Amino acid sequence: MSHAVELRGITKRFPGVVANDAVDLTVEEGTVHAILGENGAGKSTLMNVLYGLYQPEEGEILVDGQRRSFDSPQDAIDAGIGMIHQHFKLVDTLTVAENVTLGSEPRGRFGLTTDREAAREAVRDLADQYGFDVDPDARVEDVSVGEQQRVEILKALYRGSDTLVLDEPTAVLTPQEVEGLFEIIEELTDQGKTVIFITHKLGEATTAAETVTVLRDGKHVGTVPTAETTRESLAEMMVGREVLLEVERSASEPGEVVLEADSLSVTDASGVPQVADVSFEVRAGEILGIAGVDGNGQSQLAEVVGGVRRPDEGRLRLDGRDVTDDSRRERIDAGVAYVPEDRQKRGLVMEFDLADNALLGGQHHLELGDRNSDPETAAEIVETYDVATAGLDVAAESLSGGNQQKFIVGREFGRDPGFVLASHPTRGLDVGSIEFIHDRLLAFRDEDAAVLLVSSKLDELQQLSDRIAVMYDGSFVGVVDPESTTEQELGLMMAGEQPDEGTDDRSTDARAAGAGARTDGDGARTDGGDRGTDGSDARTADDRAMADGRRQPNGGSAIDGDGGDDR
Amino acid sequence: MSERDAGGVREAARAAVERLVGASRLERALVSVVALVLAIVVGIVFVFVSGFFVPDAECATPFLATPVGLFCYNPFTVFYFLVVSAVSSPFNLAITLQATSILVLTGLSVAVSFRAGLFNIGTQGQMVFGALASGLIGPWLVGQVTQGAVGGAVVIVGTVAAAGIVGGVYGAIPGVLKAYADANEVITTIMLNIIASGIAFTVVSEYVNPGGNIQTEPLPSWAMLAPIVAPPGSRFSVLVLAGALVGAAGLWYLLNYSSFGYDLRVSGLQPEAAAYSGVDARRVIVATMTISGIFGGLAGAAFVLMAQGYWTDGLPAYGFDGITVSVLAINSPAGVVPAALLFGVLKSGTIGFQTSPYVSVPPQLADVLRGIIVLLVAMPEFVRMVGVRAGIGSLGEEGVTAPPGGDDADADVEVSPND
Fold first, then answer.
1. Is the full-model pTM beyond 0.90?
2. Residue range B360-398, pLDDT digits in tens
3. Closest CA to B167 of B202, B200, B142
4. ipTM (interface predicted TM)
5. DSSP line for B198-228
6. Is A395 within 8 Å of B396 when comparing Cβ atoms?
7. Residue B272 and residue A342: Cβ atoms within 8 Å?
């Protein structure tokens, strides 16, 4: 078997960050290869290098054994590489056939006209060859998202691609469409094509791919055949572990319930459920950790709690008051500190200097005549959190990612919050800064604040949390005691499975601590066709639900996938 | 051009736009200055070369005689007169400052909305309505007061207030449409410009002065803003310039010293960060558009009370020029003042130049020169703004979690499908 694509030592730098650090990738011809990693691991960057969108600083690209250098996507297309982006690049008002042939239409009379009939014919033939269900005459705006994706794939095939790169192909699909996509991928490889797809979902990688390459922080962690690996070990490869000193932690003395979430549900614009019926409590003086592989609904849940997103269903109470419909501003006024996951879109205004950024979120408490900038606070944050910066009047964008994060954490923690919501607060930080932030989080807990910590780092969660809720496919798989749960068990739960018996006391623990975690498989997004959660009674007791959730080899069909399909 | 070359050009253009989008404010100001110099150089070459095509018989005083032919025009004199005639006499200077002060107002109107990320093209319409309100309310007030300094002051204050209110309301309409119905403000404001002219024309021709000229009743000179320091007979009042400068200072204060100003600036740069910091996006949109409309309305009042004395169909396009002024000023209130002055000089210089007996150049050339300057000076900022709106490039480098790369980067994964 020969190599369809080989990347050797690809290094791609962006200002302040190495997105790919000497990454190797070998893809066998006629196979399905998954590129697995968390957000920001460098997956898309690597594929954009292969597709000629980025030019790497170092490394070489080999296609079919030949060295190539791609200055533009056109070069990559000429070499037989096709890419299907996550956001489709289709013209909504044109038909399927027009979109597929766009730019290389069959020519009619004297080469001046487009031969529409030939175009339609070509698309139909191509669709038949690969068993695609598409109507060449339908307008793209009228067809479902899944069909649009098939049009994108046809487009690549029409241009003679032998290797197809799919960027997060399932992110926009309903569960049924995901299954359809996997069938298409199988058909493509049966006919000799090579498929590379990017994903951060373990299930998809193990279901659809023959080989998985895991990236983390821009580095190649490993390449393994799916047959010889387990989801837990993949999860561990993705998340990684940093060597941290053991944190001094006193026993927690949970007090009053500060935050109470009752059956929260979030559905995205195309009707795909992202958070499904999640309930929990966070008490004063405790840290509730939320574990999970990225993309299982933690982000959306955090946004709901932080007040930048309204839940579609369910209620949220803060200090006993219903705050579900409160604005973000009211949430701030109520003393909620929020370290957002996306520091560069939300947490900081990139063009603002640090003095201006120090006021972000606090700008509505200005006195008349005050400058709407806060150099004093900025100086304090820089000092306390050891933010490396050339000054307070430099734009936030000139700081490295880690220093940006420290600044946000410093700003939010400095507002004397009663409730702290920290979404990946230590992502991208060095060990020293991580320890400092961990200490601060524990200090909040000891000062009787309630802390909700969303993280994908297991060691962080285990060291800090008093309880850990594991999220998978939009729901809590379970709430466990970090003391009595191993990383392996957590990894297993993050992959949507239940660990073996023997650690069962954790479910009783969770209940004793008043955590109303309910496992609810209904409407969850499947990652792979083979193991959706079941759609049975959502309100069973934890034990029952956990048992139900253990393994459902053929549960995928039970999932409802309303919306999306008939968009 | 082959397909490959076209791709290369496209990539290069994209890279250039990305560079512009990422430029700092200082770099952008520098680009404006360099562009102005470049525009003058291009203009000089243009005038010089044009002189070659003048038939020799018509060229009484050639600038340069070469073996290949006569170059008739002296480009340096042309520029000299373009600038000098704008400031050479008190009367000419008054024309320059008249345009400048109105352009400061329209420039501020555009700047405030652009700073909030709103592509407001509606200043012209707001100005038309402000002028119409002035043309209707002014004469009515004249009938209510007795002639004199006090009466004049009442008329002027009342008229200015009415124009500001009308402009504000008219500016708020596209704001409300945007905030509550997600209507694209570019489209609605352009449409509202046309609607404003249409309504004004109909009101005046059908109800105010049926059968007569399409204009409102002229204000008596005691009810207009008198030329205080400018020579009598010129139509410039230093009060308007002072008012416009106060407006610029006020807007600067608002942007830098108030919660609302902070909200506005964050909204314009990063709507998601605005939402995160508790900004009510709808409120900011409506309020910003209202402020923008007030400035537009005031520009209309300034035109009626200072320059013309009545409303008439076919108002000068100060509202549209305000867009260029604001873009040139990188949408900063402080920058609007010099940018408006540059435009004022060009506007009045063109007039002086076209009527100057010393320049043998065809008057149309002055417009060409003005066009070259506007084009070169304003284009980089304009392209940048379009680039930002189209999502090309990144406003700043992105750190660990987000390699820059437009819509394909990992970082977008979490946000985009859900919003």
1. no
2. 677 777 778 778 877 887 777 778 777 776 766 554 333
3. B200
4. 0.78
5. HHHHHIIIIIISTTS-SBPPPPPGGGS---S
6. yes
7. yes
